[in-house]
Write a structure and sequence with these properties.
Blueprint: H1 5-9, E1 16-20, H2 24-36, E2 41-45, H3 48-57, E3 62-66, E4 68-69, E5 72-73, H4 75-83, E6 88-92, E7 108-110, H5 115-128
Helix pairs in contact: 3-4
Domain Response regulatory: 16-126
Protein name: Response regulatory domain-containing protein
GO biological process, one term: phosphorelay signal transduction system
Length: 129
């Protein structure tokens, strides 16, 4: 983070966030929550292929990925984001048992989660990058 006064007042105000979530209501809630914490732009995608393409070519500062996208693990999307040094966090309703051990250091939100959990997860993802 910088010492810019605007950034200090609104630390997430510059963030462009990719959200890949296959449940429409959860995705819209995530989008609203990210905007509420001050993120500048949120792109919401629901399909694995769209998420992977966005991870390969999109201009993002952070990503929030559902672990299971209509039965397909989102781990290749996470790996692509990591290769591009884009911080990320996972959201899952399945617990730690469904996680890929290679990605165990990535902050993970357990669904359902609170606003404060998301805000803390964003901080953790950004600090870990």
């Amino acid at each position: 983070m910088t010492d810019d006064p605007d950034t200090a007042q609104d630390p997430f105000g510059h963030l462009r966030v990719l959200v890949v979530e296959d449940e429409a209501l959860v995705g819209m809630l995530l989008e609203d929550m990210l905007i509420d914490i001050g993120c500048a732009h949120v792109e919401l995608l629901s399909r694995f292929a769209d998420g992977l393409q966005a991870a390969e070519t999109g201009n993002f500062d952070l990503a929030v990925l559902d672990v299971n996208l209509d039965g397909v693990p989102s781990f290749p999307i996470a790996e692509q984001l990591m290769a591009r040094n884009i911080p990320l966090l996972f959201a899952t309703g399945y617990g730690a048992g469904g996680m890929d051990a290679r990605l165990s250091g990535i902050p993970t939100l357990q669904k359902p989660f609170f606003f404060s959990d998301l805000e803390r997860g964003v901080w953790q993802a950004l600090e870990g990058s």
